[in-house]
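FAQ: What does the model actually see?

It sees only this:
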Amino acid sequence: MTRPADMPDGARGGVPETATDGAPGHARASAPWVRTRLRSAPSSALLAAALAFVAVLLAAALPRALDRGADQALRSFLDDRGPAATSLLATSTSRYGNESPENLDSVRDALLARTGDAFAVAPAGTVQGTQAAKPRSLANPELPRPDGVPPGLDLLYLRDAAAHTALVEGRWPSGGAPDGPVPVAISQQAAQTLGVRIGTVLQTVPSSSDPMSAEVVGLYRATDEADVFWTGLPCLTRACASNTSTVPPQRYWKTAALVGPDGLDRLGPWGAGAEDFWRIPVDTDRLRADRLPVVAREIAAYVGGPTASALRGTTQRSDLRIASQLPELFKQAEARQQAVAPLAAIGPAGVAGVAAVVLCLAAALTGDRRESELRLLLARGGSPGGIVGRLLGEGAVTVLPAAALATALALWLLPAPRSAAALLAAGAVALLAWLAFPVRAAVLLSARRRGPAPRRRLVAELLVAAATAAAVFEVRQRGVAPAGEGLDPLLVAAPLLLALCGGLALARLQPVLVGMLARAAGRSSALVGFLGLARAARGTGGRARPPVLPLIALLLAVTTGGFGATVLDAVDSGRLRVARLAVGGDVQIAAPYGGALPPAMTEAAAALPGVRTSAGVWTDDKAFVFGTVQGSTQVTVVVAEPKAYAELARTIGRGQFDPALLSAGPSADAPVPALFSSDLAKLAAAGTYRLSLGGGELQIGSVGVVEGTPARPGPGGAVVVLPAGPTTARLPRTGRPDRWLATGQVDGDRLREAVRAAAPAGTAGQYTVRTSAGTAAELGSDPLQRSAVRLFWASVAAVAGFALLAVLLTLVRAAPERAALLARLRTMGLRPRDGIRLILTEALPQALAATVGGALVAVSAVALLGPAMDLSALVGSNVPTGLRLTAPPVLTQALGLALLVTLAVIAEAAISGRRQITTELRAGDQR
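And it is asked to produce this:
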């Protein structure tokens, strides 16, 4: 017997490496295995390479996307805090009589020498100089005094100030007699505000210190007032309006002026002391989330550790002090990353699970297609090891180049400073794609076991169920991993384990349920439905039941999408609720402190489309209740019309009460009915209290307890709610509301336009308009949250694609046997459209059952794992722990995937069904 031309000689036991071609004395070398296989089945090789390419590309891209999102979120978080918060500030007492710019430079060089290992200095560079400890008040009578308080002048020496300014008039300060005025340069804007010009001598108010004066010799203008160079420096670019600490506060002007290098020794006498400072801005654009702990340790050592001690010795300044907000900001950033990490990993974990199932399913399909070939090679003397080795070589030529190309493409498309995680994930997926079919072939070629296979399967299923129960129990008992522990593997694995359990359970239930439908269909005269359901119940290829892997892939897809979509829906709902509580409704108009809203403004706002509930309220935070256990308690008083305010509180969900409690009008000598917050009710001692507010007093009596008020954010605080009416209208300023709150779908731009139109002339900017939509958008503007959301939806798309591929592979796996059946039935009079109906009846039950089962598993995952989830990091504010079950997110994911699967089955049946039947009819039935 001659062997096939594509049979490898190395796979045969004792067959020589050459074979005769029929001519005596002639021999030829056999064709290489890989080349022969690629020539005989190029489409299969291309599909295997394409599947490996897509899987490896996603595996390498997801870690890079996670890293890039974490880095961008960290940098955005720090940039939002401003350059002052992300800088190191070193200060030291100025060395009176021995101070010079060179001395400041030497300290700066010593400070910079300790940077660069874990963190670097921002390109803007350091800012250094010397500042007088205190400003002096100016006595010139021509200077403006808003409330009779003379303006204050601070003096500084600022290194490299000329590089950030433009000299408008005069000269830079230098020289000056030791006993004469201090030459200074002042900003042009400050000079215009104070009425100062070149040559003006600024006299100081007499005090306990020696009298001094300053002469304006130059006017400058900041090149860019928004430059980080001016951050934290006192009023150097313009005069600032300040308030005194007296009661009531009084306004006055304050500014600062620059002195030259030779004026350093005069800063101490001016301010009763002087302080040298060096501000070192940290380059946040070079910080990485994975190196944050290392940078935090370096900064901590720089601020108050061994680095700080070494710097004191190097600079010979024992009082050198270094401060920064960075250590605390790093703690907050790390806590945010660790809180989001488990939720951000659910989507990629689902992709990994479904991709692994699809790769195994592809290996099973290839094994079924080539089983007869492999057994023929084994029967003709090939060893199992030799055959598997040739299959490994075959896979290395197709899978490994595609995996390498996909990895390189992912690294190029998503540049990031670290690649270890991406390379590790890509290597793992490439290894699975390469070894899946050889391992399957080794199982097929091995001696068949005679053990009880159903028992082994039952044991494996029980082990999976036990692991799932343990993971869910542990998550519910301890909750999500505490802050500081990072990624919680149990929270990520629990939904996938639940999906795996659901797939295994559905694999046992589906044949029974579909078999019952098949028996019911068998009682009718229609043949197509019975045949399709019967094949769906028993599987194809001689199997006793349908394959499990497609079910698991679909359940993983629906569970991952449904669970994650429920989380994001809860995040959106929580963010909107937090925003509504902060605003006091969906929209709010607030008057300036001590003012009131014009009636025309509230009427115009209430007439806008979308307004459902509205209420005008008057508030006062500086009222006192007398008669509590403390004697007197400061409270927030809210005066509103009871019915409208009660409806608003009910809609928002804070401070609900029965309006009848406040609706009853009191008699002339009866106390005014009032609602106390729970915090105030704990301090109540008597039934009647004296309320002092707005310059008047009321006798009030508690008629109920409320939990907070929509007029003030936050659940805590002492609040008193009074009814608007004749009694409260007698008090000063309580007749007109200072806030208008409303609920409904109100257009914020139209509301602001109505406020501008109704505001008195020149006062439109004094009224504040807030919307819950705008506040929720601010809460959701964090790049960390946006990155997690984008990654999840990308993962959902990838999971859906792999699940769809699993369905198509299942259809392809059953295609040969189905084509033979359809060909036989065609010869018996089966119409083409009946053949398509048969394919749909066979394929759809498994897909639809998997989507329904996945939806149930997703609901179970939310119910079982939801109470342990803390969504505060994604919401952007503290919210109660727990995840509420809602049907729309789960149904959307399940129905969407079911629709995709149905369309794929219909397309496959319409496109390939007719071609398969025709091919079978032409080739004849050889089975």
